[in-house]
Design goal:
Elements: H1 2-17, H2 38-54, H3 60-63, E1 64-67, E2 71-77, E3 80-81, E4 90-93, E5 99-105, E6 109-119, E7 125-136, H4 139-144, H5 149-165, H6 170-175, H7 177-192, E8 197-208, H8 211-253, H9 255-272, H10 283-291
Antiparallel strand pairs: 1-4, 2-3, 2-5, 6-7, 7-8
Helix pairs in contact: 5-7
């Protein structure tokens, strides 16, 4: 597990050190994006700045924006990302007419994976749902590299769940939920790394089996329990018979031991219930009277 995590971290650093889709390094934070706006762009920016100065102090309410502690703002100037990348938290300024911005929530987001009908490796249809925890790690990539990072992550989680469970047997799905969740997290984390998203945790919530399969499994479990009960009863009878055999050998060595055991049994019966007991006398006691 630790080695796989180190490999993923090395791959992520390699991506971050290399150029992105726009030819810039993530570490540079797109510092030179607004340097190529051209002469027309610079004129428009100057005109917007002049308009802001002329309309002071009314324009100040349109130019000052506030970003909360858990948010970052991506500013676009004439369609290009402003140098410095994401802004915030706190105050930042924008120019009217030429600048626009997008707020990105950096908190951990949780969403439920809808129940997915999955055909397992052993051809059993099950319904599985789960929950995913993720957060935006790079606001610039989350805005510039994908249209809707949240919707894309949700759809990718559903597809990944179906793909991972399709390679597992029913017994593995029921017993190895932690391993399945870890495999899903690794796949999602690698796929969403280019979007600036970090998948923190994936959990399998529930596995629902068809009603007929539940009945069949219940009947199988009941039959298995009955079989084990019969085996245990047979083993008990065998042990009891061996003990009786040993007791009979001990009693055979002394004839009076049988009589004592008989008296002990009568005493036990009399202690439990008030009943009339016919006490037979041994024939050996009557032999003396017969001889006289």
């Amino acid at each position: 597990m630790d080695e796989e995590a180190r490999m993923r971290e090395a791959k992520r650093r390699e991506r971050q050190s290399g150029p992105n889709n726009y030819g810039f390094h993530d570490g540079e934070a797109l510092e030179n994006v607004d340097d190529d706006i051209g002469i027309c762009g610079r004129l428009l920016v100057a005109f917007s700045l002049l308009l802001m100065i002329l309309t002071l102090p009314l324009s100040i309410w349109m130019c000052i924006k506030i970003v909360k502690e858990y948010e970052r703002a991506i500013i676009f100037r004439l369609g290009r990302i402003l140098r410095g990348g994401a802004k915030g938290p706190g105050l930042f300024f924008i120019l009217p007419c030429t600048d626009s911005f997008i707020n990105v929530d950096m908190r951990t987001i949780t969403f439920d994976i809808p129940p997915q009908e999955v055909l397992t490796k052993d051809s059993v249809t099950v319904s599985v749902d789960g929950v995913v925890y993720y957060r935006v790690q790079n606001a610039t990539l989350a805005v510039a590299n994908i249209t809707n990072a949240d919707a894309a992550t949700r759809l990718l989680a559903q597809t990944t769940l179906r793909n991972v469970l399709g390679t597992k047997n029913l017994a593995e799905i029921l017993s190895d939920r932690e391993e399945i969740a870890h495999s899903m997290q690794s796949s999602l984390d690698d796929a969403t790394d280019d979007w600036g998203i970090k998948v923190e945790r994936v959990e399998i919530k529930d596995v629902k089996l068809p009603l007929q399969l539940q009945r069949a499994m219940a009947a199988e479990a009941e039959a298995s329990r009955e079989a084990r009960a019969k085996v245990i009863a047979a083993e008990g009878e065998m042990n009891a018979s061996r003990a009786l055999k040993e007791a009979s050998l001990v009693i055979a060595e002394s004839p009076s031991a049988l009589q004592l055991r008989y008296l002990q049994t009568l005493n036990t019966i009399a202690a439990e219930k008030n009943s009339t007991i016919i006490f037979p006398l041994p024939l050996e006691m009557m032999q003396g009277f017969v001889k006289q």
